[in-house]
Specification:
Keywords: FAD, Flavoprotein, Oxidoreductase. This protein is of the alpha/beta class. It is built from 17 helices and 20 strands. The longest helix is centred in the first third of the chain and has 21 residues. The structure holds flavin-adenine dinucleotide.
Length: 475
């Protein structure tokens, strides 16, 4: 690093994930001198690990598929799903900017074909299950592809990228943020964007700001990037920043024996029914990840996925956990219940036998015949491109594996921002010189994840907005 240049820097970006890289490219495109610090050896953070799915309205991809959508419609849906607990002004800015940000990414080289995608792995337009219209944009090469394009644009625009350097704290003078301390050195800048991601890897911060994660007990596992240590919250304390999004995050439902993201762990059998402690079905087993964790959490007592021998045998090979052998081993160890009849299975998991038998009978009458009058799972399966109806749950032995929200993807508590991504203090006033975006900047990600790419869209859109407002031409 060259210290003279550092002193003259217009913008310092803390963190090289989606939000930070988007902020850096945006500022550099406007002619600003930009220095980006990344604590890890590699850039990309959780963004790089993600599917890269990006929710946005009124895009060229939607238009190419004849999907009519507007930022206003997106806004209404977003606010309704979050019970209007978010600040409408901020969310409107996000909903208006997400589409143009996606077009900007496409202009930089991100490829998103105007094609229907049935999952987070196939490039195109996808539906995660809670949208009023299809809004989940899946890029080619997923999150890794997004990061590569943004890194290339950083280099092309002269951003100084500094890996392996964890910013220690903010430099604050007379209430104004004037730079950061990194590698024991004061580095000054016109403004600072904190884009250091979330705090999924810090157990104390989880207990304080996302206690729901603790409810998973020993079954909790974290898939967010290593750098998700909550440094934004520590920086915030230096300037008396207000914290928003307290108590919110995204926990995906998993079987208790999963320890990896489902791309590696594998997928539960299609022919399964989720039952609660009353032995009753209470959800579409394929409900969107945006809401399924909350639905399971709302049940009184444990929830089990019930399936039969045929379903176990039909699990595809090649995954770490949902395989025929692994499920059998869990049953042998007594952790997954296994029984020769449904009443015996009911006894093993402590639910009423008559209710479980009635639940499975109703499921067998409906789902294998392509219907689900109670929970409309047939519609979800169709949106996933899963045409064949599930098999009946009929071949003993029967299995019951506990399912709970235990896979921690991202956290939503961060530095409260306004629609310009400026950080607010506890009085609600802006902290001069300080911006935040992505999981570090809070107020866009709400109680309910607005499926189909809420967090990547938040990171890149708000990172871009932060830079537009923080760099000289925008100030
Ligand atoms: C497996 C997985 C799949 C996902 N899939 C999707 C999806 O398809 N769509 C979606 O919307 N969301 C998805 N998410 C969530 C989404 O990826 C993240 O919420 C989002 O990308 C966060 O972006 P960010 O820039 O805020 O943080 P990150 O991408 O995590 O970047 C933060 C960076 O800051 C660095 N850093 C931290 N502290 C410091 C410091 N003090 N100094 C310097 N650098 C620091 C970190 O190392 C990291 O590189 C997924 C998440 C995971 C883990």
């Amino acid at each position: 690093m060259n210290t003279e240049e550092l002193d003259a820097c217009d913008l310092i970006v803390v963190g090289g994930g989606g939000a930070g890289l988007a902020a850096a490219v945006t500022a550099a495109e406007r002619g600003a001198s930009v220095l980006l610090f990344e604590s890890e050896k590699e850039f990309g953070g959780s963004t790089q690990l993600s599917a890269g799915m990006f929710t946005a309205a009124g895009t060229s991809v939607q238009e190419g598929l004849g999907v009519e959508d507007t930022p206003e419609r997106f806004f209404q849906h977003y606010m309704d799903l979050n019970h209007w607990l978010l600040k409408p002004g901020l969310v409107m800015e996000f909903c208006r900017a997400a589409g143009p940000t996606l077009e900007w990414l496409i202009g930089l080289g991100v490829e998103i074909p105007a094609a229907v995608s049935h999952d987070a792995h196939t490039p195109g337009l996808c539906r995660a299950g809670v949208e009023d219209v299809w809004r989940g944009h899946v890029p080619k090469d997923q999150g890794l592809g997004l990061v590569q394009v943004l890194l290339r644009a950083c280099r092309a625009n002269g951003v100084e990228l500094v890996p392996n350097t964890r910013v220690e704290r903010l430099l604050v003078e007379d209430g104004r943020v004037v730079g950061v301390v990194a590698d024991g050195m004061d580095v000054r800048a016109g403004a600072v964007v904190v884009a250091s991601g979330g705090f999924a890897r810090d157990r104390d911060l989880l207990d304080r700001y996302y206690p729901a994660a603790g409810r998973a007990g020993g079954d909790l596992f974290v898939v967010a990037a290593e750098g998700s240590r909550g440094d934004h919250l520590r920086f915030g304390e230096q300037v008396d920043a207000s914290v928003a999004g307290d108590g919110w995050g995204l926990l995906l439902p998993t079987a208790y024996f999963q320890r990896l993201h489902h791309w590696q762990s594998g997928f539960p059998p299609k022919s399964r029914v989720h039952v609660n402690a009353r032995g009753r079905r209470f959800m579409d087993e394929d409900d969107s990840y945006a809401v399924s964790g909350g639905i399971i959490d709302a049940q009184d007592g444990p929830v089990h996925a019930v399936f039969d021998e045929r379903a176990r045998r039909s699990l595809p090979p090649g995954y770490a956990h949902w395989t025929p052998e692994h499920v059998a081993a869990e049953a042998d160890a007594g952790r997954t219940a296994r029984a020769g009849s449904l009443p015996e299975l009911a006894a093993a998991i402590g639910v009423p036998a008559d209710a479980l038998e009635a639940t499975v009978a109703r499921w067998n009458d409906q789902l294998p015949n392509g219907r689900d009058e109670d929970f409309l799972r047939d519609r979800t399966l169709a949106a996933k491109g899963s045409d064949a109806a599930p098999d009946p749950i009929a071949e003993p032995p029967f299995y019951a594996a506990r399912v709970l929200p235990a896979e921690l993807v991202c956290t939503h508590a961060g530095l409260e921002i306004n629609g310009s991504a400026q950080v607010l203090d506890r009085r609600g006033e802006t902290v001069p010189g300080l911006y935040a975006a992505g999981e570090a900047g809070a107020g866009v990600l709400g109680e309910r994840y607005v499926g189909g790419g809420n967090a990547v869209a938040n990171a890149i859109t708000m990172g871009r907005l932060a830079a537009l407002h923080a760099t000289p031409a925008g100030r």
